[in-house]
Write a structure and sequence with these properties.
Blueprint: H1 2-13, H2 16-30, H3 35-57, H4 63-66, H5 73-99, H6 110-134, H7 138-160, H8 162-169, H9 173-201
Helix pairs in contact: 2-3, 3-5, 3-6, 5-6, 5-9, 6-7, 6-9
Amino acid sequence: MKGLFVRDAIWLGKQRMLLVCMLALTVFYLFSDLHAFGVAFLPLMLAMLVCRTVQNDVSRACRRMFFTMPFNTRDYLIEKYCGAIIPPMLLSLVLMALGTLSPQMAWNQVPVALVMVLATVSVTVAVEIPIILAYRAAVMRIVAMAVIFTICVLVVSVTNNQDILVALTSIPDGLLMLIGGVVCLVCTAASGSISHRLLSRAEW
């Protein structure tokens, strides 16, 4: 499994120009009126890039030989879900610390923002990976992108609505984090089960 993480890290390293551009946009968003979107933007893009590696693996050129390598489908899916959720969440913590330097974002909004990012990333990954495995055609990736874009719009709308934001910040931080963790676990478990079934019955 370590080799899978290294392989994805090398592939992400080759996307450095794209990552630099996304980082520049993130910094711009953090210190503008779109600071809530800025906190979620780069983690979400990073998660989508990791999901892109799944598409590369199941492409027509690779799929005949890929699973002859020394790992099973369970190891592969654990690496993909962990790689698509954990690093973006760690990155979001850094971005939130940066975001508090902006006058638009207060410390009491950090737990709300963290839960929003966790829910957005986990739902995005939970939707995209099974779609990629079930429908390898590019048109299905467009469908997945449309779903993800809708999720992003909803998150930004919620975080920019002061009434909803006040209601969320009034919830105890522990309970809020518990809700976010449950959403992430439920989405990941359901998606992982579907993805494992799809990979297990695939004819490579």
